[in-house]
Amino acid sequence: GAGVSQSPSNKVTEKGKDVELRCDPISGHTALYWYRQSLGQGLEFLIYFQGNSAPDKSGLPSDRFSAERTGGSVSTLTIQRTQQEDSAVYLCASSLGGTGGEQYFGPGTRLTVT
Amino acid sequence: SQKIEQNSEALNIQEGKTATLTCNYTNYSPAYLQWYRQDPGRGPVFLLLIRENEKEKRKERLKVTFDTTLKQSLFHITASQPADSATYLCAPTNFGNEKLTFGTGTRLTIIP
User: Does the distance separating the beta carbons of A4 and B34 come in below 8 Å?
Assistant: First the structure.
């Protein structure tokens, strides 16, 4: 079946521009997560959506980052006024929800801020 | 603060031998611990989950142990193959916490 998909796969943007990254989770998965992976760094949690509950935004690094999930499915991560330190691979994952659930990751979006 | 350490950034193992990867954590009381595999340019792929009341879990050539006293998990790949070459990530998780915090990973290379 279809896995988690993300678009675009690569994005190059100029410093100061806004970008939107999209995630399509696996159908039926109620939980959706965004992570960031910088070169040489581990995976860093950004935000988590579970059903209709308020999202856990505790990992967002600044107020330039925001995310929404429409209709309990597709999610968009928006970075405003991009900075060079935002360059990283942004990974989306989904799961059935509930404690201990394995997460299914998408291929990621590689963001380069010039 | 919470910390996850995985042994050596890179590990080279001869084909056919057992590869053993270590995950040590501090300031966690994980209810469970997950192991993922990540290939270059791809997202992590789930391998195994072990719960705090389980000492050992197996799946084909993979074996995971979990010692909550030592605050350590060991990940073994027996009869290793070049196709096992990848980065392996561990993620200890406290009960009720959905978000995963990963170690920086161990890059495993199986040498033919």
Answer: no
Q: Which residues contact B16 (CB under 8 A, 6 or more apart)?
A: B79, B80
Which pLDDT belongs to residue A99? 64
The answer to which of A16-25, A61-70, B28-37 has the lowest mean pLDDT is B28-37
Does residue A1 surpass a pLDDT of 60?
A: no
Q: Chain B residue closest to A88 (CA)?
A: B41
Using the predicted structure, report yes or no on whether residue B8 has a pLDDT greater than 80: no
CA B86 to CA B11: how far, in whole Å?
10
**Which long-range contacts link A105-108 to residues 24+ away (Cβ below 8 Å)?**
A105/A4, A105/B43, A105/B44, A105/B45, A106/A3, A106/A4, A106/A5, A106/A6, A106/A23, A106/A24, A106/B43, A107/A5, A107/A6, A107/A9, A107/B41, A107/B42, A107/B43, A108/A6, A108/A9, A108/A37, A108/B42, A108/B43
Residues of A in contact with B51 (CB under 8 A): 100
Q: What pLDDT, on the 0 to 100 scale, is given for residue A96?
A: 87
Strands A109-113 and B10-14: unpaired
Measured distance CA(B107)–CA(A41) in Å, rounded: 13
Pairing relation of β-strands A109-113 and A10-13?
A: parallel
Q: Does any CB of chain B come closer than 8 Å to the CB of residue A103?
A: yes
Round to whole Å and give the CA distance between A80 and A82: 5
